[in-house]
Amino acid sequence: MKGVKTESLSQAFAIGKHDRARLKRQKPCCVWLTGLSGAGKSTTANLLEKRLHEEGNHTYILDGDNVRCGLNSDLGFNDTDRVENIRRVAEVARLMVDAGLIVLVALISPFRSERLGVRRLFDEGEFVEVFVDAPFEECEKRDPKGLYVRARRGEIKNFTGIDSSYEPPEAPEIHLRTTLVNPENGVEIIMRYLK
């Protein structure tokens, strides 16, 4: 199969993304929440999904930690595995958007080039990058899962912010500074954007 363009192998179907979206009465999209561990991505995604669900939307969350328990359980945290982690999550998110869903992705996704590659998978207006921004010191202080402590002890290698870099977005659609905006207000900002 090497050298064969994958587009030439795809099967055409009678029902498409727009048909599925019309049936669900919503505009499908991918809301991609990026930021350091402890910045508030999962909290924001959870509250956002609850709000969207209350308004009758069809949604799904792809959370970095949860995805690593199944689909990406074979991946580590070196740069190569991080890139593959993002690639797999992005492809799943693309399929879910094609199914007419509003997909919320909560994933550190530390590299700008990879996030740009994800954006290119979606049609214009379907990808919403949300930078969930908290200073490193604040994230380490919060440390909801004890990961920073373990990384400082050397139990976790290639931990973003300690011995692996994070490249903040340069022009996200939404920039939530979580030391200034609480998660509920952050959700309101995202909801306004999505409408």
Helix proportion: 40-55%
Q: What is the approximate shape?
A: globular
How far the N terminus sits from the C terminus, by CA atoms, comes to 43 Å
Q: What would you call the structural class?
A: alpha/beta
Report the sheet with the most strands, covering strand number, pairing sense and barrel closure: 5 strands, parallel
Write out the strand line-up for the largest beta sheet, numbering strands in chain order: 2-3-1-4-5
Question: Any idea what the CATH superfamily is called?
Answer: P-loop containing nucleotide triphosphate hydrolases
CATH architecture: 3-Layer(aba) Sandwich
- The average pLDDT value, as a whole number, equals 92
Tell me the fraction of residues in β-strands, as a range. Answer: 5-15%
Please report the number of helical segments. 8
Instruction: Report low-confidence residues grouped into runs of 5 or more.
Output: none
Kindly state the number of beta strands: 5
Number of individual domains: 1
Features:
globular, 8 helices, Rossmann fold, 5-stranded parallel sheet
Indicate the topology.
Layout: H1 17-24, E1 29-34, H2 41-54, E2 59-63, H3 64-67, H4 79-98, E3 102-106, H5 112-119, E4 127-133, H6 136-142, H7 147-152, E5 174-177, H8 183-194
